[in-house]
Amino acid sequence: MAIFMFNDNCSIGEVRSVETSRITVRVTDGHKLQKARVGRLVAIQSMGDEWLIGIIERVWRHPVEIPKLEDDGSSDTALVIPTEENGICITLVGTYRERHGSQKDFFTRAVFSLPEINRPVFPIEEKSLEDFMGILSASSRTSSAAPLNVGTYTLDSKAAAYIDGDKLFQRHAALLGSTGSGKSYTVASILEQSAALPHANVIVFDLHGEYGSMSFASHYRIAGISDVAVPSERAIFLPFWLLTYDEMQSVFVDRSGDNAPNQALALMDSVIEMKRAAIAQMGKEDLLEGFTVDTPIPYNMTDLVASLDAKNDETLDTGDTYASGPRKGLAKTEKGPLNGKLSRFLIRLKTKMNDRRYAFLYSAPSSYNTYESLHDLARKLLQSGNGTSERNDGIKIIDFSEVPSDILPVVVGIVARLVYQVQFWSDPGPGGDSRHPVVLVCDEAHVYLPSHASTAGPLERRALENFERIAKEGRKYGVGLLVVSQRPSDVSTTILSQCSNIISLRLSNKTDQGVVRQLLPESLESLMEVLPTLDIGEAVVVGDATLLPTRIKISKPKHLPRSATIPFWLRWAKPKSQVDIAAAVENMRKQTRG
């Protein structure tokens, strides 16, 4: 049975002008204008059982003054008779067909044809709206074996809103919203449903420890000071030898110094020397065929420092001897090319090595300095669920909260780069589908993915390079991105432009709103006008993963993140618990939460 069965009395107006995707409608009856509300869906019959679906983006009523002569013509005085011009503007968002081949109730985002002038326009409401939203839910649900239910449609709270999980992650997604708009529990809701898939593979970059309450996931953290003496089972060390040459330069070399080029060359020579020696000691000479300075080979940091010390103190024999004086007969020497030029560089390097805040880089346990340690780290990062345990080991939440802020970007970039490189070098198999896909959830992305590389520091630039490569090429190798940020204007435009799906919660800042508008097709920009007025947990969802670009009320997860806004006034009125200030001070001194 057809879901759209309108009679002429149901029409709110007629098509007056047609552009590529925008329709102007003339409303002759002022009372019918009340049915035209911004954000409401309308239907325009194109031909037969094909209907164009649109969203009302603007409604207006203009007074019009029309001069008119009196009927008897006895006076030249024109009487001004006021009247009104009513109209609405519609953006087309798709096509509904009662039958499409053998399929019934078919909806697509494509617009196959445009309406004729004077075609009646009908509001989709009540039973028609309920039926249409039910079709959207059913279509999304059947398009995937395990559909992703993000909530309910604002237009019809009885209709569940599903999105295509494949398209959401294949083509990357951006989850944007101001503080307190519901970003964290939207992430938590997506993680919960991902955990229901037996072989899920998700890595969450948790910068503030917000997702520690997700009991269905595996939890790790970048090692802190407390892990130096007794490493925790869940602590992850990222030994310095994992760094690429560019990353080493960003961490160790002061670009503003006059000796920066000498320091960079000395560092490269010593790293190559250490890695070649380690390869020979391990008996892995076959690696030398494809060896570069970036080849991840474990070596000892103290050996690297000793090599740089030797370059800094190097003297060369001139071939001459002293002819007289107390040194008569002794060989003459001169300073080596780097003699004394690495002193400040070595001081900075040794200072960082002795700083316990960087223990995860310079004080990794001996088990991380074996040839197999990289295999173990890669398995930990890329393990997927096995479909047998209650906890899904494929959902991995990595806590970066103890990483010093000055080095945070490059540390997050190292993890992302390792994941991408392992996926890149995996055997794709005969059909190209042997890689197991993984999604990186980049929480607080504006912290380490700045909008302009030219103004970013060397550490941020290294992280940007890694993530921009994933954004551009990750889809081919099974690496997807979910970029989460409260300040989209501070996030790399290159990365955001690669996100084909936008989930935007409330955004009050005009600059941030402007960035989101630029990410959308021109025909959908009007949807973004509602961003400042969205309720908490309500989002505008646009992109390849959703059949209909519309407002959705996001479902709350069962496991709420720890980022819930603290009710100041309520707590001040009725304090729930006493804070152990002494314990907090001791934790601060020990640099651990116990």
UniProtKB/TrEMBL annotation:
<keyword id="KW-0413">Isomerase</keyword>
<feature type="region of interest" description="Disordered">
    <location>
        <begin position="316"/>
        <end position="335"/>
    </location>
</feature>
<keyword id="KW-0067">ATP-binding</keyword>
<dbReference type="Pfam" id="PF05872">
    <property type="entry name" value="HerA_C"/>
</dbReference>
<dbReference type="InterPro" id="IPR002789">
    <property type="entry name" value="HerA_central"/>
</dbReference>
<keyword id="KW-0378">Hydrolase</keyword>
<keyword id="KW-0238">DNA-binding</keyword>
<dbReference type="InterPro" id="IPR033186">
    <property type="entry name" value="HerA_C"/>
</dbReference>
<feature type="domain" description="Helicase HerA-like C-terminal">
    <location>
        <begin position="432"/>
        <end position="541"/>
    </location>
</feature>
<dbReference type="InterPro" id="IPR027417">
    <property type="entry name" value="P-loop_NTPase"/>
</dbReference>
<keyword id="KW-0547">Nucleotide-binding</keyword>
<keyword id="KW-0347">Helicase</keyword>
<dbReference type="Pfam" id="PF01935">
    <property type="entry name" value="DUF87"/>
</dbReference>
<protein>
    <submittedName>
        <fullName>DNA helicase HerA-like ATPase</fullName>
    </submittedName>
</protein>
<feature type="domain" description="Helicase HerA central">
    <location>
        <begin position="149"/>
        <end position="418"/>
    </location>
</feature>
<dbReference type="InterPro" id="IPR008571">
    <property type="entry name" value="HerA-like"/>
</dbReference>
